[in-house]
Design brief:
With 163 residues, this protein is an alpha/beta fold. The protein has helices at residues 2-6, 16-20, 23-32, 65-75, 96-105, 119-127, 138-141, 147-156, and strands at 12-14, 37-46, 49-54, 59-64, 79-84, 110-113, 133-135.
Length: 163
């Protein structure tokens, strides 16, 4: 990670390594600044609670997503990349309630991920989920939504965006 940041990367994202060793978040924030540290949280519903999963969503943990989000924010993470494994790949929309819960719990930006399928899903996660940013992949890769169209739509919805 040091090599990446010393050679021009603006940010690094950690996930499983942070769950295994939470003090890694402290160490990275201390050495490089919180603005460089993005902690990805993969979330899955287990026993009616949103719990953290690792290894790309394959390995369950007992950590509650809200508790983990608070801890990593307190340890110095600069942003949270929140992916709902329940929504990821469905194209049925982001996990708006989870995003809202986490956004209301921490003092750092929350990036919503998992579930984007329609242009309206973005406005919903910004307006109703209080997301600071939203991530999508396949809808852009496969040309289902043009980035310029999304940006224009978000601007029309009074969501700040660079054109």
């Amino acid at each position: 990670m040091t090599l990446l940041l010393e050679n021009g990367a603006d940010k690094i994202s950690i996930n499983t390594s942070a769950v295994r060793n939470p003090s890694l978040v402290d160490e990275l924030a201390k050495n490089f600044g919180s603005q460089c540290v993005v902690v990805a949280i993969d979330a899955k519903i287990t026993d009616n609670d949103w719990k953290v999963v690792t290894h790309g969503g394959r390995t369950p943990t007992s950590l509650l997503v809200t508790d983990w989000a608070k801890e990593i924010a307190d340890r110095g993470a600069g942003e949270i990349l929140l992916t709902s494994m329940e929504n990821d790949g469905t194209k049925n929309g982001f996990a708006v309630e989870l995003t809202k819960e986490i956004s209301g719990t921490v003092h750092i930006p929350v990036i919503a991920s998992g579930g984007a399928g329609k242009i309206e899903h973005f406005a919903t996660v910004f307006h109703d989920g209080n997301a600071d940013a939203a991530l999508a992949a396949s809808i852009f890769h496969f040309g289902e939504i043009a980035i310029t169209d999304l940006k224009r739509y978000l601007q029309e919805q009074k969501i700040p965006v660079r054109l």
